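INSTRUCTION: Work out how this chain folds

Fields: amino acid sequence; protein backbone structure tokens

Chain under study, with its fold:
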Amino acid sequence: MNIKIEPMNEATALAAAEIEALCFSSPWPPESFINILNNNNALYLIALCDGVVAGYIGIFDLIDEFSIINVATHPDYRKKGIGRLLMSKIRKHAENKGCAVISLEVRESNVPARTLYDSLGYTVCGRIGNYYSDPKEDAILYQLEIRNQEDQCTF
């Protein structure tokens, strides 16, 4: 299987919206994926498996922090390292930009995603009660410290 990561465009945004609808109970509509492409503070990448959009990830660049807004892998392509590869690309991008932290939130019950984040070195840093609807559920907040301690300012 040949996996290629590239920036999302209008055509692949619609494929990402289809994946979103398969994976989430309250998915973004296709227009949201197309509109986000015009946001200079957003970066959206897609994973192509032999030419088929198999996954995507989107972040907001908040100056010294990247916030992962959404990430998903098509059910037919799970357990093939696509989510891990997308997360690794975002980490590399954060390192190259000198970003200090990557953060995200995830449904408490999403054990496969939480297992991935744990394996990538993300740590739980909080909880937001009833963050999600349909069904109501808490969000678990994760973060990954990018910079080494010696790179951070101390006073």
User: Anything to note?
Assistant: The chain is about 30% helix and 35% strand. The helical segments are 10-23, 30-36, 82-97, 111-119. The first helix runs from residue 10 to 23.
